[in-house]
Amino acid sequence: MQELHTNALGQLYNPVRQAGSVSPAHWHVLGAGAIGCLFASALRRSGCPATLLLRAGEDQDQATIQVEREGQTTQVQLGASPVSAPGHIGHLLVTTKAQDVHDAVLSVAHRLDASSQVLLLVNGLGFDHTLRTELPAPAYFHGSTTEGAYRLQRRHIRHAGRGVTRIGQPGRDSAPDWFGQWRRAVSPSHWDPLIAETLWLKLAINCAINPLSALHRCSNGELAGPQLAPQVAALCDEVIEVSAAAGFAKVTTHLHQQVADVISATAANRSSMLQDVLAGRSTEIDYINGHLIAVARHYGISTPHNQALYDRIIKLGN
Ligand code: PAF
User: By alpha-carbon position, which residue is closest to atom 10 of ligand 1?
Assistant: First the structure.
């Protein structure tokens, strides 16, 4: 009898029948934060081998992830492997902070080759330029997710809200072989032929929300109030101008409304940058407003509002 598996939504399916003769991809996961744990456990539960990559000094070959969802806790057992181990990595999921991507991927460079598929599910843009030059062999993919998960303790997360995951490779219309299995594990996931536009829109929205909420230590919803709404609007205006110069005019046509919608849909949430500031962690500012400012400079556009916020976040010294 074939073994049935459960996907992240709790639906049963037969991985062998659905995947045809393709054996499940073995995913190695770099970055065991909330999203890394969520996707690693979803992949494992759907029948894919999944291994957490551990920092140097951590020496174990098994790891347990606990996922709380709607009051129930599921424990998922997966493999573990120090980054320095020798084995080949065919499929690498990177869910680190943007500023950690370069060093994290280079720490497993000896395990990657031209057949390796590297999926960067990371906030912001511009974190992979040097990496791609230094390590050009693997195929790089990008992802963006609106899944809501947060860390309760080490490898113990709460899956607070379901979202959508989009994956793509700029210029590529059709999904790679592994995407069918991925989609069954992480549902709903869509192959996105316009991933560059999707990532730019996310950057545009984050530029308007993240640094302001982090500086004022306020929930996203408070950005809609009379004191901060004009600043949100000024940031959006600059982002729209830079987007037009960078070829993303259509993406940001309705940016003011889109930002207002995200603010209202996430009104009670603390942005990821505010969470980083409160926890004393470094922020992703260089890959959010910092990236926008760099693109603006390239096109000779000045972005005083984004620059002022960037400077103030940098001054926090995180
Ligand atoms: O970075 C974040 O926190 C999120 O992308 C967003 C949309 C700003 C909501 O908090």
Answer: 271
